[in-house]
Design a protein that fits this description.
- The chain is of the alpha/beta class.
- The protein contains eight helices and ten strands.
- The protein has helices at 35-46, 87-95, 104-115, 176-180, 182-189, 200-221, 238-250, 277-287; strands at residues 2-8, 12-19, 24-31, 53-58, 99-103, 124-129, 133-139, 142-143, 226-229, 268-269.
- The longest helix is centred in the last third of the chain and has 22 residues, at 200-221.
- The structure holds adenosine-5'-diphosphate (ADP) and zinc ion.
- Zinc ion (ZN) binds at residues 154, 169, 171-172, 175, 177-178.
- This is fructokinase.
């Protein structure tokens, strides 16, 4: 069966055709511009290719409740041209195939659990630390959703004792995303994160915020693996700092063989799948 897959990101759309064995035949990457510019390119990529279903892992916030009238519509996204854009409906109407939509991070969690660095366990949480911060989870054979999708990037965090940055989330000021996403590292320190590699205090503070989030996710979601991706996590020195803080903050409260000095390195890990995680996950969504 021929299936379509889209990883709809804030900066780029990855489009692919594959099959129900997870094999990709064709792929194209286009920039995320105004929907009037991006969507015709998306439609023309898939048109006439004979796909039977289409899976989409999208940036958000987006309605992923299948019962809802606005299933597949974007919501109050910072990409303002896309606010209320009915992505799912447009794709379905234009291509005439069923469209299954979930969040980019839920799809990444599922992908890591199927084929990546969480393939040996049953549950996985995926967090991306990039332009924004978001997390998704795959547990009990499903991605995590309910009322809406989780918004784990916007949890409140305790301020670092040396941090005077006021926080930059337009909705919450000093939530996790407002304190620790890439653009806020840049605003706090006056340089892009990538140019701050050598500055230890930058990463110690970043790890302090991210570790608090992971500790909360461990308490609430109880995943058997945490995969951390996104541009900021390319700073590999963050991993040991985050692991150290997580153990310190948990302070032995959660008893699990995954959460010891010896095992934490294989509990909090980078992604196993690189560029294709998003589209492969979207392809898997299309199979369901
Ligand atoms: P997006 O979140 O838009 O999909 P990314 O995950 O690449 O894209 O995140 C972009 C953010 O990550 C920017 O704020 C950028 O400064 C930061 N970033 C990208 N690469 C690196 C790097 N190697 N080291 C540190 N920060 C990075
Ligand atoms: Zn926020």
């Amino acid at each position: 069966m021929k299936l379509g897959a889209i990883e709809a990101g804030g900066t780029k759309f990855v489009l692919a055709i594959g099959d129900d064995q997870g094999e990709l035949f064709e792929k194209e990457v286009i920039p995320t511009e105004h929907p009037d510019v991006t969507m015709p390119k998306v439609i023309s990529f898939f048109e006439g290719k004979g796909i039977e279903r289409l899976g989409v892992g999208s940036f958000g916030p987006i309605d992923i409740n299948k019962e809802s009238n606005s299933y597949g519509s974007l919501q109050k996204t910072p990409k303002t041209e896309w606010i209320d854009y009915p992505l799912g409906k447009e794709l379905k109407n234009e291509l005439g195939v069923p469209v299954i939509i979930d969040t980019d991070v839920n799809v990444a969690a599922m992908s890591e659990a199927k084929w990546g660095n969480a393939a040996d366990v049953d549950s996985c949480l995926y967090i991306t630390v990039g332009t924004g911060i978001g997390a998704g989870a795959y547990i009990g054979g499903q991605t995590l959703k309910g009322l809406s999708h989780p918004e784990m990037g916007h949890i409140l965090v305790r301020r670092h004792k040396n941090d005077e940055y006021e926080g930059g989330c337009p909705y919450h000021g000093d939530c996790l995303e407002g304190m620790a996403a890439g653009p806020h590292i840049e605003k706090r320190w006056g340089k892009p994160a990538i140019e701050l590699t050598e500055d230890e205090k930058v990463w110690e503070m970043e790890a302090y915020y991210l570790a608090q989030a992971l500790v909360n996710y461990i308490y609430i979601v109880s995943p058997e693996r945490i995969v951390m991706g996104g541009g900021v996590m390319k700073q590999e020195q963050l991993f040991p700092l985050i692991r150290k803080y997580v153990l310190e903050m948990l302070n032995g409260y959660v008893s699990s063989p995954f959460l010891t000095e010896e095992t934490i390195d294989s509990y909090i890990v980078p992604p196993g799948l690189t560029d294709e995680a998003g589209v492969k996950g979207a392809l898997y969504l299309a199979m369901e």
